[in-house]
Amino acid sequence: MIENPVSSHDVPEVSVVVINYNTGYLLDRMFAALEAAKASLRIEFIVVDNASTDNSIEILENKYPSVTLIKNPMNVGFGRANNQAIPHIRGRYILLLNTDAFVASDTLEKTVAFMSDHPRCGVLGVKLVGGDGALQPSCRYFPTPWNVFLERSGLSRLFPNHRLVDDMSWDHASVRQCDWVPGCYYLARTEVIREVGLFDPRYFLYYEEVDHCRAVRAAGWQVIYYPFTEVVHIGGESAKTDGAITRVGRQISMLQIESELLYFRKYFGVSGVLANVALSMLADVLSIIKRTLKTFRIREASSALKHMSAMLKVLVATRFALRPTR
To answer: Is 76 inside any structural domain?
Structure first.
């Protein structure tokens, strides 16, 4: 059981914020990893539950009574739920942690120490590995309609010097500044959150941390990837309870498309949205041609056809990415 690590007279060094949605089966493992990693750090725990229908609330109330628990009557989305925790935060640093992300025994100490030694670091991410130990994209470039197209179409090999969103060609063994880091382990200064805010509530799921890192960098802070500890990230555990998962990234297609369009509208305007849609359609057409020629069966290209249909539906539903649907 997690003991309350912070008395009423102590100011915590880290406020750990966790958004839970039907992942009660992961809570014990997540908290056990945090307990083993906290060492001498003063930590407070804040969990926002997005109307889970499993036994999450029972587990949290019975086994972790010292955790500040916010119970939502409905699923408000990942970004909005994190924003709800802001008034409760007292720590110098804020750690946004997924329920399916498990810290190593040295993760908290090392990353907090790095932040303390690098006062211009506003957001810090770490090396992410899957349950099988395989490296996951941990240090990323901002998406553009063009680099998203290159990745989806498989034509990136023709543009070897172009920066893809997920650059996996380096050794991931050195500290480096980057555009953005994934939100499954997202360590930020409270000072930064007070200055630029946290997540844009228009994103129900996905792209929150991309958008936030843009704001952090625009305010003059650094976003840094730190490789000297690992966090095991399963990925997609909350998402898979709420819809069909795509094979790539195990993400919900409609929500991912919506967030992508909202992001491009915010930073590239209508022309960026139209460019993204046109290039994504082209990537799907190329995929259909490739798969059909390879197998001589059109049904092998069904995923590309479904993606095209979903993108058009989302484009209309969001009024060309002017507003979210949820």
So the answer is: yes
Residue 293 belongs to domain spanning? 253-317
pLDDT digits (tens, 9 = 90+) for 14-49: 999 999 999 999 999 999 999 999 999 999 999 999
CA 121, CA 213: separation in Å to the nearest integer? Answer: 11
> What's the pTM value of the predicted model, to 2 decimals?
0.91
Residue 150 domain-assigned (yes or no): no
Residue 157 DSSP one-character state:
G
Kindly report the backbone phi and psi dihedral angles of residue 178, in degrees, each rounded to the nearest multiple of 5, phi listed first: -145, 180
Domain shared by 79 and 224, yes or no: yes
Q: What is the pLDDT of residues 135-158, one digit of tens each?
A: 999 999 999 999 999 999 999 999
Structural tokens at position 111: 């990353």
Task: Tell whether the model's pLDDT for residue 221 goes beyond 50.
Answer: yes
Of 20, 252, 255, 250, which Cα lies nearest the Cα of 131? 250
**Same domain for 87 and 41:** yes
Please, which pLDDT band fits residue 237 given cuts at 50, 70 and 90?
low
pLDDT tier, 161 (very low <50, low <70, confident <90, very high otherwise): confident
For 142-169, letters b (16+ CB in 10 Å) and e give bbbbebbbbbbbeeeeeeeeeebbeeee
Q: What is the mean pLDDT of the chain?
A: 91
- In the chain, the number of structural domains is 2
CA 298 to chain centre: 34
- Residue 74 tokens read as 């409905």
Q: How far is CA 232 from CA 156, 185, 217, 249, 295, in A?
A: 28, 10, 26, 15, 37
Task: Kindly state whether residues 37 and 109 are assigned to the same domain.
Answer: yes
Dump the DSSP string for 54-122. Answer: SSHHHHHHHH-TTSEEEE-SS---HHHHHHHTGGG--SSEEEEEETTEEE-TTHHHHHHHHHHH-TTEE
Rounded-to-integer distance, Cα 204 and Cα 256, Å: 9
Last residue of a domain, one of 214, 241, 268: 241
Interhelix angle 302-317/253-295, rounded to 10 degrees, is 150
Question: Using alpha carbons only, what angle is made at residue 246 by residues 240 and 251, rounded to the nearest 5 degrees?
Answer: 55
